[in-house]
Amino acid sequence: VNDLNESMNTFALYYLGIGILSFCSSYLQYFLWETSCERQIYKLRQLFFSQVLRQEISWYDMKKEGDLSCKLSDDIERIREGIGYKFSIVTQYLSSFVSGIAVGFYVNWRLTSVLLGVGPFVIGTAAAYAKVFFKKIVLEQMKYSEASGIADEVLACLRTVTSFGGEKKESKRYEDAIESGRQLVMSKYQTISCSIFVISFIVYGSNSVGLYYGGYLIGEGLCTPGSVFAVFLSVMTTAFSVGNVLPYINAVSAAMGSASNIYNIISRKPEIDSYSEEGLRLNRLEGKIEFKDVHFSYPIRQNVPVLKGLTMEIKPGETVAIIGSSGSGKSTIVNLLLRFYDINRGQICIDDNDIKCLNLKWLRNNIGVVSQEPVLFGVPIADNIRYGKEDITLEEIEKACVVANAHSFIMDLPERKRRKVFKAKIHLLGSGRLSCKNGRRCYLHNSVLPLLNGQSTILLYCEGIVQEALDKAMIGRTTIVIAHRLSTIRNVDKIFGLQNGVPVECGTHEQLMSKQGLYYNLVMAQSKEANEQELVDEFDELEEKVPQIFSTVSSQSSLTSRDLNEMENISQAVKQPIMARGYIGEVGDNYLLRLTKMNASEWPMLLTGMITCCCVGFIWPAFAFLYGQMFSTFKLKGEEFDKAIIYWTAMFAGLGLFAGAGFGMQNLSLSSATEHLIARLRTKSFNNILRQEISWFDDENYSVGRLITKLARDAPIVKSASGVRAGTVITSFITMAAGLVIAFIFGWKLALSLSLGVPLLAYSGYKNTALLRSNQKRDAALMEQAGKVATESLQNIRTVQSLGKEHVFVNQYVKLLETPYKETKKQVLIFSLACAFSQAFLLFMYAAGFRIGSYFISNGDIFYPNLVRYYTYLYDFFESLFKKIPYLQDWTRAAMSAKSIFGILDKKSLLDPLSEDGLKPDISGKLSFENIVFSYPSRTNVKILRGFTVRVNVGQTLALVGGSGCGKSTVISLLERFYIPEEGKILIDDCDINVLNIAHLRAQIGLVTQEPDLFNCSIKDNIAYGALHMHISDEDIVQAAKIANIHDFISSLPQGYDTMCGDRGAQLSGGQKQRIAIARAIVRNPKILLLDEATSALDTESEKVVQDALDKAR
């Protein structure tokens, strides 16, 4: 006994020393790997975003911003999960595998060789599993990226979706994409489950072979029972290393699949590289531009030529205008000048230098573009102007605004230049946006200034102001004007008439009028606007006298507005201001219960998973019991020994079969249930987002960029702590409970003594979890803001690249990443300490157990065989407890994401477009506005409508005219029930619209905006989008296209009506998009027609045809 006590005390010191070494090495392991992981992810986000902004526009034509946003969030999160501590654990288990084999060979090479005979089967199965897993994870990411692309497209075009009642269609489209991804994932998990069955059966079942052969060696006198035990312990460590490493290999394989998608983009060098330092940088740019026999067709439609031998010359300082019908190639000229695309044949020169030989960034910095649809970003107006020149002072900004005629209206805003344009197309009028953009361009000092139809979307009232700003901007610059309003180009130096991609005439206004060709015909078609200036002057006088909305009535039936997109910064209905601002209350901590309820329909899978978790939880205690019986078996002799060996060999084989089936079924059932849950979370979140009132999306906290990031990121994070991982936790608790009970049975005094350390470990885990949760809540908000910047820049990539400000947006993105990165490094320190303590705690318990155990043996309170069994069960207990420690980080992140998701799900809409509530009467179209009072929540002190009253009978037209900001578009917004008036009523057929069903009301209204949204589907589907509430035939679509004067163009395309429009109609010109939007409204056959500058992007000839068609449609 004294020798035993001395040996046990010695081993206690060994365990203590190993524990200290384990603490230090584990701390370094977790700290260094997690720190390295965070650094790599921090750099990877920057590199990926930078490389995405670097790609040429033709590459974007083939991609979707939502797909790229998904990669920036979901894919990189998967990489983060696979290259951190999980990868180090794979390395750790590999080390255990090698060292276990080495010890086994050293102790008993014969038995070890036999046990390793099953190794090739395990390794082969694992290799096949990893290969299949890698392939399917790539396909899975592609499917989920498709869903993110749908979400991005729908949310970016939300007003169009809402106006045409497309919520159900878009929900179904998103749900189908998610379901396709889920089915692909399930095929992956079926492969995983089969692999787990084979590996678990081999790992646990191999012990039966070892026991049988070990018994034979003992019987032959070739080894001792001690060597058999040593081999079993070493090889058991090896075998269980293979089994335990599988979940971590899943994470690493998923990271590899996501990394392949990410690095395919990072490694891609664009054909037109805006980051390249190569190319000439001219000391002085004169501004001479030459197009020499230029042929071009867009890459996505290479068989449709746009320019066919274009040749023209523009001298330095000249102002030239390019006119022609929609689709004739006018805007394409500017795209080629900016090198968004390279030409197929010919040459474009600036100052006698081929633009392909010029440095691209220098080229774009010397070309300023004022487009038809100006883009402002979600930063203060001052910062929007700084995009023109970064190192300018506030005084210089004010000077630029004065030149651009923007200073006065900016000074009228409450926050002045600090005012944030959360969604630029909403908060400022078209004229305001264009004036701000002009201010941005005034400090670029460009030598070339293309103006893309710069006034076509501006009110006649504002045209004089904008034209004056443009005239100031054109001084001393070579200017290219692309215009439909010919009255603005009469004084230019030269006019090119473009037809079918070729200039058919060139000259001054007087010269072309005398030729009586293309330009003459267009001018004569616009002769009805000869008294335009008088009309503007009348408006000025009327506005001074009556600061209200004017209305005139004629004998036709529609509503017309010149400026629908003047909408202000809105949060929601004023009657309930807190909910109106999109407020979401705090979600309680019952998210686990709520997730379980949402998963209730998969109860057979959950029940199977729980049963298998219980079964798997008893595998380790059962193995420990069998292992303890081996100790007694080897004491037997003769025939009794042989029978016992055969019996326990069969038991080990049965345990292997049981373990394989248990682990396989656990993985399949829990994974299946989890994938259903995650798919349901995504679709329900998206559905509830679409149900919200329009004003909710104007809140910065629920901007499109942030919502897309939430949809792509939150659900996968919840998944990372559910399913098999949740099953592992349940299994660990069962194993821990069983091990603790059996340990108390074999030595309750020793078990009680050692259990005193468990509360300390539990408390440290609790504090670590609380700290991680608080930090991750802050970091999540910052990451959402970074995601918003990324999404906004990707959605407006043409503006970003034309400004040459890719680095500015990358720096903004990086700056928003800095704080969470720094805080995460602090979290890594605490996380590493907790994990290192948990790893060393088991060895400390062994040390204490050996020291205390020797005392109890000396006193006769415990026998040595029971002590061996006790340590086996004690190992089960603490090993199960420690398995949960590294998951703390995943659990806290999952809890934050679950709360975020339920925050969206719990948001109740005030104006639910999918609600069945409300009346659905037949509507004839009589309208009444009675004493409407309304102000936007962002400016409650500014009344937009003050007792507005007007009536329109069936068959009449109401024209809304007046100065900018007088409330014209507000009237239409209230009629669409985007917002709720503070006072007064809106009646349709003498029925208050508040009691009408929202979907039924909007089904009676057709809307055409001045900046139409098209979806990335065929032309046919885009037109049919206007009639989602009714059945229409192909003939109806064709007829609507003919009325909109777009049928001939569509028919000329190789794929006709099946031609894809591209992302937001990118493959079509502005006029073509607008005519398709008109056809979409016409096919709806509405009782009320809302026209917001419906023909602003059309050439004169098309405008006349379409206007006649619209007059007939009324």
TrEMBL record:
UniProt signal peptide: none
UniProt EC number: 7.6.2.2
Residues passing through the membrane, by range: none
Keywords recorded for this protein, A-Z: ATP-binding, Glycoprotein, Membrane, Nucleotide-binding, Repeat, Translocase, Transmembrane, Transmembrane helix, Transport
Pfam families per UniProt: ABC_membrane, ABC_tran
Domain of life: Eukaryota
PROSITE patterns noted in UniProt: ABC_TM1F, ABC_TRANSPORTER_1, ABC_TRANSPORTER_2
Swiss-Prot/TrEMBL catalytic activity: ATP + H2O + xenobioticSide 1 = ADP + phosphate + xenobioticSide 2
PANTHER family: ATP-DEPENDENT PERMEASE MDL1, MITOCHONDRIAL, ATP-DEPENDENT TRANSLOCASE ABCB1-LIKE
GO CC terms: mitochondrial inner membrane
InterPro entries referenced in this protein's UniProt entry, alphabetically: AAA+_ATPase, ABC1_TM_dom, ABC1_TM_sf, ABC_transporter-like_ATP-bd, ABC_transporter-like_CS, P-loop_NTPase, Type_1_exporter
Protein's name according to its UniProt entry: ABC-type xenobiotic transporter
Subcellular location: Membrane
Membrane topology value: Multi-pass membrane protein
Keyword Repeat among UniProt keywords: yes
A biological-process GO annotation: oligopeptide export from mitochondrion
GO molecular function: ABC-type oligopeptide transporter activity; ABC-type xenobiotic transporter activity; ATP binding; ATP hydrolysis activity
Similarity section: Belongs to the ABC transporter superfamily. ABCB family. Multidrug resistance exporter (TC 3.A.1.201) subfamily.
